[in-house]
Amino acid sequence: QVQLVESGGGLVQPGGSLRLSCAASGNIVSIYGMAWYRQAPGKQRELVAAISSGGNTNYADSVKGRFTISRDNAKKTLWLQMNTLEPEDTAVYYCNGDIMATNRARYVHWGQGTQVTVSS
């Protein structure tokens, strides 16, 4: 069974920083692309940033220059460094990963989400 567990969310003032982590565990053979999504109240879930297994990245225009996605393949961990946070960044943040398990099944798995609130 494959699991993704996020951590690092919380309450931060505008202009502050947070670092989210997402740890993958279970019967994993390979992790391909990984990404962070977010969903604000009353809005659809949106892609924030994505990273390939080789380290290629892409970002939503709204976070370019403020957020940095990274991963450690050996540790099966994904991060999102968020700087200069704005109230508009308030949302539940989810990680996902395109993962092949030991039974050769390959699916996109999602974490449970972590709340980020930007407010003074």
SSE topology:
Layout lengths: L2 E5 L2 E3 L5 E8 L2 E12 L6 E6 L5 E3 L7 E6 L4 E6 L8 E11 L4 E5 L3 E5 L2
The overall pLDDT, averaged over residues, is 97
**Secondary structure tally: strands:** 11
N to C succession of SSEs: EEEEEEEEEEE
How many strands, which pairing sense, and closed or not: the largest β-sheet?
7 strands, mixed
Helix content: under 10%
Number of helical elements: 0
Beta content: over 45%
State the low-pLDDT regions, or none.
Answer: none
Shape: elongated
What separation lies between the terminal Cα atoms? 40 Å
Q: How large is the radius of gyration?
A: 14 Å
The SS-based structural class is mainly beta
Structure description:
It contains no helices and 11 strands. It is mostly beta strands. β4 and β5 form a beta hairpin. The radius of gyration is 14 Å and the shape is elongated. Helices cover 0% and strands 58% of the residues. It has strands at residues 3-7, 10-12, 18-25, 28-39, 46-51, 57-59, 67-72, 77-82, 91-101, 106-110, 114-118. Strands 2, 4, 5, 6, 9, 10 and 11 form a 7-stranded mixed β-sheet that branches.
